[in-house]
Design a protein that fits this description.
Number of strands: 8
Distance between the termini: 34 Å
Largest sheet: 8 strands, mixed
Helix content: 25-40%
Structural class: alpha/beta
Strand order of the largest sheet: 1-2-3-4-5-6-7-8
Radius of gyration: 18 Å
Order of helices and strands: HEEHHEHEHEHHEHEHE
């Protein structure tokens, strides 16, 4: 599908949203969906960013407001939980800023959040306007809590997928994905999306945040699952900083022993670590 056609097809999700498993439908248009993002996309900030993986930086990082998750330890809550934080721009204005950042040396165009999932219609519209002026690869940095329909819309538009696989396979209200992240059926949904992209032959770098007290329930099963999918790059995030609103074990600093154990397991499993 050509970019304009893809962008047009995505616009229907502004009034009948089926982009994530919450399937908010018509509630999206009035900002009453789970993410509370309405018809307009708000951008919290954009910049040349050196905090991404080495193969991506300097990245043109575009931080969208709003998120489909409710992680209790979110360090971006200021805009992730407030979908009207920031400014609105047109697709043409964002496309022009991307051109500017490419001229300044951006090696990638990173759509981040919050989470970029609710903003897929705007992202695709922007890329359609950008057209042949696009020089750097597009990157979707997402929790990948998406539907198959959303992934199909993105095919051909995104060059590198940078999903976060934070939580382990325990399901139900006591599982980390739902209890801490606010995403029911987390493991099946996100690993299903990664597998779909893997079968499609997409370029994947999967991030995993090492969290205090979650080595056995999250880090170990995540790394073992990834080891069964050769060719996927793995980025271990070991810089966990507890925000003031975190509670319980997630209010603690990350033990050095957990970090060492995670890297040792990754090495033993033969994972392709991306710095």
């Amino acid at each position: 599908m050509d970019p304009a056609g893809r962008a047009e097809l995505a616009q229907r999700h502004l009034t009948d949203c089926r982009l994530c498993p919450f399937l908010c439908g018509e509630a999206r248009a009035s900002g009453r969906g789970m993410c509370r993002v309405g018809r307009a996309s708000h951008i919290a900030s954009e910049m040349l960013h050196m905090g991404e993986e080495e193969v991506l930086r300097p990245a043109h990082a575009i931080f969208f407001s709003g998120c489909t998750a409710r992680c209790s330890f979110c360090t971006a809550a200021r805009y992730a939980f407030h979908p009207t934080y920031g400014v609105t721009v047109t697709a043409a204005q964002l496309a022009q800023r991307i051109v500017q950042r490419q001229a300044e040396g951006a090696r990638s165009i990173c759509f981040i959040g919050g989470d970029p999932a609710p903003h897929i219609p705007f992202i695709l519209q922007t890329l359609a306007v950008l057209g042949e002026r696009k020089q750097a690869p597009t990157v979707l940095n997402s929790n990948l809590y998406l539907t198959a329909e959303a992934l199909d819309l993105l095919e051909g538009a995104i060059d590198i997928y940078l999903p976060d696989l934070k939580f382990g396979p325990a399901d139900g209200p006591d599982g980390c994905g739902e209890r801490i992240g606010g995403m029911p059926d987390y493991w099946r949904t996100v690993t299903g999306c990664i597998d779909r992209l893997y079968r499609r032959g997409e370029r994947l770098i999967v991030r995993h945040l090492i969290m205090p007290g979650h080595l056995a329930c999250c880090t170990e099963p995540v790394l073992r699952w990834l080891a069964q999918r050769p060719g996927i790059g793995v980025s271990l995030l070991d810089q966990y900083v507890p925000p003031a609103h975190a509670r319980g074990v997630l209010a603690q600093t990350l033990p050095e022993g957990d970090v060492a154990a995670a890297y040792a397991l990754a090495e033993a499993l033969g994972l392709e670590l991306i710095a």
